[in-house]
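Why should sequence recovery work at all? Because a backbone constrains its sequence more than one might expect. Tight turns favour small or flexible residues, buried strands favour hydrophobic ones, and helices have their own preferences. The token representation captures these environments compactly. In the example below, the structure is given first.
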């Protein structure tokens, strides 16, 4: 349980300190629940696009859309029981027009990535994976789409629409980043209706247009 852990110990685990090298506090962590049952706690942060030559974060590069999440399961007894995840969202969705970080979107992406991982480990019905919905917990089904479907999603410029041109059911590289996908939780490449831009999103971010 998170309250039984020495949070300073987490920073001594190299794979964790690479992303979370600063002091972590209990208030940094949020509950992760499935159907009102506590699974564990997590914290998340958006990542910047590059490092300086000295290995420090280059804040001038801006956010690249990657989100790092640190998950501590309910039964954790030490820092080695913690899991680290990196997922990806549209870089334009990381910050609000005010410049503040868009924490509801960042946390929802982290929650979804963690939930996919823990339900993949122990899912009795593979086609009924829970799906995180910001502020509402989980729904019963992960949304599925096919090539040719007309869909829409939220962006910094508002609601955007496009047509699905590819469905990924395995991990794939997109713009230099590895995206995680499976048959149960595919990712989609969508070509914008208004430009030649192609975006990659999980089904949870999409709606039929």
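From this structural description, the recovered sequence reads:
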């Amino acid at each position: 349980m998170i309250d039984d852990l020495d949070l300073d110990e987490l920073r001594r685990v190299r794979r964790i300190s690479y992303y979370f090298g600063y002091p972590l506090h209990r208030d940094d962590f949020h509950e992760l629940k499935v159907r009102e049952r506590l699974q564990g706690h997590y914290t998340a942060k958006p990542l910047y696009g590059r490092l300086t030559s000295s290995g420090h974060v280059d804040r001038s590069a801006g956010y690249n859309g990657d989100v790092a999440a640190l998950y501590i399961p309910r039964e954790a007894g030490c820092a080695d029981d913690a899991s680290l995840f990196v997922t990806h969202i549209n870089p334009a969705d990381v910050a609000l027009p005010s410049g503040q970080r868009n924490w509801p979107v960042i946390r929802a992406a982290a929650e979804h990535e963690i939930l996919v991982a823990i339900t993949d480990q122990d899912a009795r019905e593979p086609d009924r994976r829970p799906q995180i919905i910001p502020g509402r917990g989980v729904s019963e089904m992960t949304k599925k789409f096919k090539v040719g479907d007309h869909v829409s999603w939220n962006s910094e410029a508002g609601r955007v629409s496009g047509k699905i041109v590819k469905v990924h059911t395995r991990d794939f590289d997109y713009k230099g980043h590895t995206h995680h996908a499976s048959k149960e939780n595919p990712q989609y490449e969508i070509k914008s209706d208004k430009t030649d831009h192609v975006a990659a999103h999980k089904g949870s971010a999409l709606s039929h247009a």
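A few observations help interpret the result. The chain has two domains: 2-137, 143-208.
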